[in-house]
Amino acid sequence: MNERPAPGSDPIPTANGEDEAREVGVGPWVGPWPEGEHYDPELLAQGDRRNVVDRYRYWRREAIVADLDTVRHPFHIAVENWSHDFNIGSVVRTANAFNCAGVHIVGRRRWNKRGAMVTDRYQHVHHHPDTAALLEWAHERGIPLVGVDNLPGAVPLESHPLPRSVVLVFGQEGPGLSEEARRDCEAVLSIAQFGSTRSINAGAAAAIAMHAWVRAHVYDQPVDGPILRTEGTGHAEYPTLS
To answer: Locations of Low complexity compositional bias (predicted)?
Structure first.
């Protein structure tokens, strides 16, 4: 018989599809309670078993989100979700780990949240009914779009500078980026592969791209490759790679 989750805990997916609490975190606060509106009285009394870093122990969820908002990185992640892509939960979890500005789901509003491990509670997740709506949102804010897909002629991620403010766009598993998304991206970047498979998991590709952004803009490790553009169009020129 499975035990019920501990108060304040995040549900953890198990192999049999049921949720149960993993024993993480801390128990009830010992001693006089700390002062501050960001503390949650229920968590202080019953313990905080959520999957959050120690800095946010006993904090209210809303207070955590507000604090993250003060230091979010200015890149966004967009995922096309035409056939209910199961990788989106993993993408959201990684986006939270790198504290990106927002995750944008294009197409179907519903997505499988199990892989997000409850991190969607702390991450801004937006929905756009179609690619055109995403493009309009980005254009209004002057944020360029950069696709990530192993398409013929795509520019290697490893040698292409990533803008500081950017929307990294990923197609769904299988079909990849839609033609409409490809046309409007300033560049389409590929991830170097050296094995026999034609592609890597979309969630893994998103994690690699996000880490590339962090290396460039948080750790000051930008790549030296040129940004290739077609004069007068604002779009990238995709050279054929040998």
So the answer is: 24-33
Distance of CA 129 to the CA centre of its chain: 19
Q: Which of 177, 168, 215 is nearest to 199 (CA)?
A: 177
My answer on whether 116 and 211 are in the same domain is yes
Q: So what's the pLDDT on residue 21? A: 47
10 Å Cβ neighbour count for 117?
A: 17
Structure tokens at 84: 């209910």
**Cα–Cα distance between 16 and 140 in angstroms, integer?**
45
Q: Are residues 208 and 108 in the same domain?
A: yes
Which residues share a beta bridge with 124?
A: none
Per-residue pLDDT reduced to its tens digit, 174-224: 788 999 999 999 999 999 999 998 888 889 999 999 999 999 999 999 987
The CATH number for 139's domain is: 3.40.1280.10
59 & 173 share domain? no
Cα(13)–Cα(58) distance, rounded to whole angstroms? 23
Its domain, for residue 146, covers 72-217
Backbone angles phi, psi at 167, to 5 degrees: -110, 115
Q: Are 193 and 158 a contacting pair, CB within 8 Å?
A: no
State the Cα–Cα distance between residues 72 and 68, nearest whole angstrom: 6
Residue 157: inside a domain: yes
Number of domains in the chain: 2
pLDDT, averaged across the chain = 86
- 82/158 same-domain check: yes
DSSP 236: B
Same domain as 81, residue 59: no
Backbone angles phi, psi at 225, to 5 degrees: -65, 155
